[in-house]
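Dear Dr. L.,

I hope this message finds you well. Following up on our conversation about the binding site, I have prepared a predicted three-dimensional model of the protein together with S-adenosylmethionine. For your records, I am including the exact sequence and ligand specification that went into the calculation, followed by the structure tokens. Please feel free to forward this to your student if that is useful.
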Amino acid sequence: MRWIASAAFGMEGMTGRDLKHLGMRDVKVMDVGGAMFEGDFADAFRASLWLRTCDRVLLVMSQFEARTYEELFQGVKAIEWEKLLPADGAFPIRAKCVKSQLMSPSDVQKIGKRAMVERMKQTYGLDWFPETGVTFQVDISIRNDVVTVAVDASGEPLSKRGYRTWNGEAPLRETLAAALILQSGWHPWQPLYDPCCGTGTLLIEAAFIALGRAPGLTRKFAMEAWPVVPIDDLNAIRREARLKYEEGSKRAIRIAGSDIDPEAIELARRHLKQAGLAGRIELSVMDMRDVNVPGEPGVFVANPPYGERLDNIRAAHAVAKQLGALQRRHPGWKLCAFSADMGFEREYGRRATRRRRYYNGRIECEYRIFE
Ligand SMILES: C[S@@+](CC[C@H](N)C(=O)[O-])C[C@H]1O[C@@H](n2cnc3c(N)ncnc32)[C@H](O)[C@@H]1O
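The resulting structure of the complex is given below.
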């Protein structure tokens, strides 16, 4: 079976690399959208459980060219849906069209549905499908006239790890936070400090990496409800991940953070508890101007206020200045800042050693690493 590990712009390569680390076969990083790999249900489950930067894992049912709705209809109808879907399965369709002849997602959705129903009528000998059973979310995406029909094996996006139930002012998506930690070059035995940690996403993702905790360890995935899936094998993979975490959680970590806002710290504490990390990460209410971390140098990671609106751009600039001063107070420390503020380096007081571009939702941001 062929699978897509979908990932946001800038994170495709990282997702591909992680798939290779997991031992997946025939990994191909796509220009946009993520990486493809080959494997059985157990492989897809392992990927869902362990990939830190991936949004969803999808089972590819077919890929074909279509420039007319008739071609789309025939292509979707030719898929052996009966191999995956039971007669009572629900099959809602999501559609996306980019740079193609067929550019109406709602029409693609309708034709796709009609084609699936037609196929199922023939194979199940029924006229009507109640769709009262397990949900199979079908994804039809058309790019440059190539149609990819896939079924979502994840359910909720993989960024939903299950620990964040309260949102602060501008929380980072968990997958993006993990990408920032992985890109920072931080080694889990080094100290890591977030001086404006908000609800704690970067700290939690760093701790998961350091302790060898699978990001999806405590959540469910859509594929677990599919009747064709060997559920005992999947449960064994989850048990194995749990054992790995039991071992990993004995490691000592030096991860800490602070924020000027007491409410944000309160939320961060709740998230830590939800993530099973209570007591493992030091948190305090503090202005970053007062942060002084004693001991061996490590890595500061920060997602400071963006200043994407005119009214708060001055505040964002002031914070960039304070981050520059923070690094100067800590010789030997690296500082990595993720922000949409294009004047960041000027305010910080020096040029970044490395830069990478990502989107946080629709906001274009830069991740700047100051060695
Ligand atoms: C974009 S949010 C960080 C969100 C965080 N990454 C999360 O996932 O929740 C920016 C944070 O910077 C904090 N902040 C602003 N000025 C600060 C200062 N001078 N010292 C410390 N924290 C500050 C804000 O309280 C806010 O929580």
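In brief: Residues 191 and 295 are 9 Å apart (CA to CA).

With kind regards,
A. P.
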